[in-house]
Amino acid sequence: MNLHEYQAKQLFERYELPVKNGVVCQSVEEVDLVLAQLSGDKWAAKCQVHAGGRGKAGGVKLVQNVEEARAFAEKWLGQRLVTFQTDKLGQPVNQIYFEETCDIDKEFYLSAVVDRALSKSGVYCFLCWWNGY
To answer: Where is each ATP-grasp fold succinyl-CoA synthetase-type domain found (predicted)?
Structure first.
């Protein structure tokens, strides 16, 4: 199952897990409308592709105002994002997820993998305090 970040966060919300407010857009024209639904004056703009390494590849940016958000959307929507987890053609960026910001006390990487071939229990969890490195 491949989920975009915004889809995973919708599932978290459904089961009452805390997440920051965010809205997805599919066009530059939607950016103003999307940001009007969020609070604050800066947001995290995140390309939605099925690959890790988006930040290092420029697909995640802290935007300081609506103009920067629009510019980010103009740059990425309809383009392909190449990360260390994609092939050389990358993945198409059809959606940008804008999310409210918050102060970060600690950051870590958490992953759950289902692999029925390796074990009957099937679920492995990985936790890393260094952003997955």
So the answer is: 2-120
79-117 pLDDT per residue, tens: 999 999 999 999 999 999 999 998 888 888 888 888 777
Q: CB–CB of 89/81 below 8 Å?
A: no
Extract the tokens encoding 17. Answer: 């897990």
Q: Which residues pair with 96 in a beta bridge?
A: 25, 47
CA atoms within 13 A on the CB side of 86: 18
| Lookup: tokens for 116 | 């029925």
- Torsion, CA 34, CA 2, CA 5, CA 49, rounded to 10: -70
Contact of 76 with 59, CB cutoff 8 Å: yes
Q: Which fold has domain 5-106?
A: Dna Ligase; domain 1 (3.30.1490)
The residue type at 34: V
User: Under the phi-then-psi rule, with left for phi > 0, alpha for psi from -120 to 50, and beta for the rest, what region is 132?
Assistant: left
